[in-house]
Amino acid sequence: FYFIPLSYIINKKMKKSFVKYFELICCLLCILFIILLPKETILGVKTGINLVLYSMIPSLLPFILIINILIKKKLCNIISKFFYPILKHIFKASQFSSFIIICGFLSGYPLGCKTIFEGLKNNLISEDEAKKLLTFCNNPSISYVINYVSYLCLDSYFKNSIVIMFIFLPPIITGIINSHLFFSKQQVNICNTDNNSSISVLNNTVSSLIKIGMYIIIFTTINAWLSIFISNDNIPLNIITSFMEIISGSKYVSQLSLSTIHKLFTLCIFSITGGICIFIQSISFLPSKSYIKYYIIGKIESLLIFCILFYIYFNYKTIFNFIISLL
Questions:
Q1: How many Å apart are CA 181 and CA 173, to the nearest integer?
Q2: For residue 52, what is the enclosing H or E element?
Q3: Which helix (H) or strand (E) covers residue 211, if one does?
Q4: With the C-alpha atoms ordered 286, 292, 296, 298, is the resulting torsion angle positive or negative?
Q5: How confident is the model at residue 12 (pLDDT cuts 50, 70, 90)?
Q6: What is the pLDDT of residues 197-255, one digit of tens each?
Q7: Of 262, 121, 255, whose CA–CA distance to 197 is shortest?
Q8: Residue 125 · residue 190 · CB < 8 Å
Q9: What's the helix, strand, coil split of the chain in %, to 5?
């Protein structure tokens, strides 16, 4: 009995020391790259700043500001009433979580996670419902999918409806499955909105934008460093590095020598998962690490469903003929 807690303490100390050494190595490597690769560092920072100023802020600022106002002034309950009668049956959602679901599918990354966090902080949803919502409520915006993925990256080769189906149907199916199987308990509306936080709406909005913007700049800089070590002919490694930051990465993938179907498959995976940068942005809004696993599980479920849908759509004739032959 004495060895059990001792071994646990040793393992815990080893984990902490490993994390510290890993963080130290990462910091030293970053300093080394900044010194040895000044040109690439400046290029990566400039690319990140351009994305922040001309892409991230114009697209996210209005949504973040409006969401903060709606929650602060308790106006989100009025909006929720319109969607609650339908969503309570589909996702077994409470009234405020109906508002989160709408935000998660319309506002874009990472506002789904931010709205879930705001709901938890203001006691508008329970912890169990937050875990369920994390599995399917953090998605790209429809405008990003249509204007950027479909039009700019795929050159409108596929219909917008097809691209939207591949990106948004998997999280919807994931939400339905999780709501009725793993979180089957009907959620109760929580109306304790007596939150007297001194943080103003503008301060909350600015701090969220700064956090998201800094992650974008960091990951575009890392991409610039990695691009030196990868040749243009190495398509798999190019796709992996593009996965670091999907806005610039998606445009880069569209320029690779891939078939349009392979480009669609890759860009849909980018959009569904959000890439590493958006993953870090999203989990930074969560109140504790215990919620992260639900977010990851939800993305894995969505990916599996997407792969099935993608295969069925492009091989439906073969599948249909196979079924006919069996009959």
A1: 12
A2: none
A3: helix 201-226
A4: negative
A5: low
A6: 446 888 888 888 898 899 989 988 988 888 887 776 778 888 888 898 888 888 888 88
A7: 121
A8: yes
A9: 80, 0, 20
